[in-house]
Amino acid sequence: MIALLRGRPAGRLGSGIIIDVSGVGYLVTAAPALIESLLSEEEVTLQIATIVREDDISLYGFGSTEQREAFDILRGVKGVGPRLAIGILGQLNLSELVTALTNGDTAPLIRVSGVGKRLADRLCLELKNKIPAHFQAALSTTPSRPAPRDPLPLALAQLDYRKTEIDTAMSSPDVPGFDDAPIEVRLRAALRVLQKQ
Question: Strands 16-21, 4-13: parallel, antiparallel or unpaired by DSSP?
């Protein structure tokens, strides 16, 4: 069984990347974003999961041992084959996947192509208590992504409104929320609120 490959990226082929190891080209299926990042490198190291079937031997590549382990865990669920497991890991990073499974949150899973509501429910149900402890420990030391900043207060400040006025506009029910409308619509609504002051 091949568990690791170190070599030179030699191009794409279908949904995989060819890794030249001492003159032998190994075709490795991987997430598109990972393939893209590898193609510009001189030498790469990939963690490998080898899937052996009667008529085929396929290699699946990952940037870390945790991703490879997550791949194996996902494949333990009925209805999740290697390509779907790669698809899940390609669209959700490990932190997002573990959080979704731990909380029973099917929404991020359903956004993955090929995962429906029933399969998402099954993934959460079957894997909630199968997440290795070292996954949780690694994620607890990973800084969370900062929330996107709302541009509306800055736009109002650039129009010379004071902080108290900006706070009034931001707390008004007549001004749509950050996720509810484009900045132009929200700015016009805030200006209407402030003109009534």
Answer: antiparallel
Report how far residue 138's alpha carbon sits from residue 150's, in angstroms, rounded to the nearest whole number.
30
CA distances for 24 relative to 34, 69, 70, 155, angstroms: 21, 26, 28, 57
The token duo for 61 is: 């590549």
- pLDDT 10s digits, 27-55: 999 998 899 889 888 999 999 999 998 88
For 169, counting Cβ atoms within 10 Å of its Cβ (0-12 exposed, 13-18 middle, 19+ buried), the class is buried
Average pLDDT in the 87-106 region? 89
AA identity, residue 122:
R
Q: How far is the CA of 140 from the CAs of 56, 63, 96, in angstroms?
A: 39, 20, 12
**pTM assigned to the model:** 0.65
